[in-house]
Amino acid sequence: MIEVLKPGILTSIQDKGRFDGLEFGIPVSGAMDQTSMQQANMILGNKAGDAVLEMALFGPKLRFASPTLISIAGADMSPTVNGEPLDMLHPYPITSGDVLEFKSAAAGCRSYLAVKGGLTSEVILGSRSQYDGITEASCLSKGAIIPYQSLDYLSFPSGSRLKMDRESFNREVLEVFPGPEFRGLSDDQQDKLFRTSFTISHYNNRMAYQLNEELENSLSPIITAPVMPGTVQLTPSGKLIILMRDAQTTGGYPRILQLDERAIDRLSQKYEGQFIRFKLY
């Protein structure tokens, strides 16, 4: 098991997501940056969607009770084990009593910790992902215990190291498809949508990212319709809201764009004050 000595900021258990609850209006949840989660798992020979720890902005301090292998992907939070620095995207052995500690993110804002075999917390509606109202808590607190399967012996997967693309966190361009209401925008509105560098506001979390710049909204309200992670909504005031992994499953604002999965991953590594631009496929 892992004992949480210090929780960091919004550290939570996440996996590929919870798809069994969509018919009940339950958000998908899951790792914000699915690519980084998959990389951390791949290094250990885990399944791509096995449960990991997602850490945002400032990481936790953790103590391991039994041997395992770990790997870390995503934002570099200067991880150390017993004070010794670890490289990202590399498998490391852990023994009983080892303390793993993270600091603040140097680039990007979300980091992912995988353990061999994945975390084995409770499965609810097909997922271990934490979400308020579905699991006991939406994130981890001091003293929390996280189960995993301890290893009798440590074996390293062959060829289990990946190259870190640090520049990916700095890329502004997000690839998008037209949303259902996109064609209702005028040519001028469409042109502005793709010419503007939008700034991420302080309203950004696992549910949605709001942008500071406004786009004139001449669209009529829509009847409540399905939405999903990556849906870009245009509010009556002209604000753009990009739905993320914990977003609701229906909404009433016009859906003008839809991010692809890689664009959602890239956006999840950005924070307040950074810029993004939309690029149509």
Task: Describe the overall structure.
The protein folds into 2 domains: 1-151 and 160-165, no CATH class; 171-280, Cyclophilin (Beta Barrel), CATH 2.40.100. It has 281 residues and is mainly beta. The protein is elongated. The strands form 4 sheets. Strands 12-19-16-17-14-13-20 form a 7-stranded mixed beta barrel. It has a 6-stranded antiparallel sheet with strand order 7-6-9-4-1-11, with no helix packed on it. The chain has helices at 34-44, 187-195, 261-268; strands spanning 2-6, 12-14, 52-56, 61-64, 68-74, 80-81, 84-85, 92-94, 99-101, 110-115, 145-146, 173-178, 198-204, 208-214, 225-226, 231-234, 239-243, 250-251, 255-259, 275-280. A hairpin with a 3-residue loop joins strand 13 and strand 14.
- Rg is 20 Å
Strand order of the largest sheet: 12-19-16-17-14-13-20
Number of helices: 3
Secondary-structure element order, as H and E?
EEHEEEEEEEEEEHEEEEEEEHE
Task: Please report the distance between the alpha carbons of the first and last residues.
Answer: 45 Å
What is the tally of beta strands? 20
How many separate domains? Answer: 2
pLDDT < 50 stretches: none
- Helix/sheet category: mainly beta
Task: Indicate the mean pLDDT.
Answer: 94
SSE arrangement:
Layout (H helix, E strand, L loop, with lengths): L1 E5 L5 E3 L19 H11 L7 E5 L4 E4 L3 E7 L5 E2 L2 E2 L6 E3 L4 E3 L8 E6 L29 E2 L26 E6 L8 H9 L2 E7 L3 E7 L10 E2 L4 E4 L4 E5 L6 E2 L3 E5 L1 H8 L6 E6 L1
Parallel strand pairs: 12-20
Antiparallel strand pairs: 1-4, 1-11, 2-3, 3-10, 4-9, 5-8, 5-10, 6-7, 6-9, 12-19, 13-14, 13-20, 14-17, 15-18, 16-17, 16-19
